[in-house]
Amino acid sequence: MQIDHIGYVVKNLEKALVEFEKLGYEKCSTFFDDEKRKVRILFIKKNDYILELVEPKDESSDAYAYYKKLQNGPYHICYKVDNIDESIKNLVEEGYLIVKEKSAAIAFDNKNVCFLYKRSMGLIELVER
Ligand code: NI
Predict the structure, then answer these.
(1) Residues 33-57, buried b or exposed e (16+ Cβ, 10 A)?
(2) Distance 77 CA to ligand 1 centre (A)
(3) Number of domains in the chain
(4) For the chain, does the N or the C end have fewer beta carbons within 10 angstroms?
(5) If you measure from the C-alpha of residue 50 to the centroid of ligand 1, how many angstroms do you get, rounded to a whole number?
């Protein structure tokens, strides 16, 4: 599985972007408004690293729980996979729990994504290539 991005929860996308830009990050997407997940998203890049800045729109967003715990900070690693159903099955066999069933994500051109969790690992995301 190849790393696609690191998810980084923030209170305010615009304010975080200003700080990341000061450190040499550049925007590499438009702002996405994901109504289904109640988040706003922006991808930024530095060297070969892509961060997904995720701003929970309100407390009902799953990402809000991570914001509450971490404040601004990284909270998931996302991997690109060829066959998301097969990868989910393999990870479930490894003891991962499906946090959110796979569903299309606007920030990924409506490709399917799925979040899984394992206590000794943390939160990971899969995205179809
Ligand atoms: Ni992500």
Answers:
(1) ebeebbbbbbbbbeeeebbbbbbbe
(2) 7
(3) 1
(4) C
(5) 10
pLDDT digits (tens, 9 = 90+) for 59-71: 999 999 999 999 9
Q: Read off the pLDDT of residues 78-121 as tens digits, 9 standing for 90 and up.
A: 999 999 999 999 999 999 999 989 999 999 999 999 999 999 99
Maximum separation of any 2 CA atoms in the chain, in Å? 43
State which amino acid sits at residue 2: Q
Which domain does 10 fall in, by range? 2-128
DSSP 20-69: HHHTT-EE-S--EEETTTTEEEEEEEETTEEEEEEEESSTTSHHHHHHHH
Q: How far apart are CA 39 and CA 76, in angstroms?
A: 15
Distance 118 CA to ligand 1 centre (A): 16
Read off the CATH number of the domain in which 112 is found: 3.10.180.10
- Pairing verdict, β 73-81 and 32-34: unpaired
Span from the CA of 89 to the centroid of ligand 1 (angstroms): 19
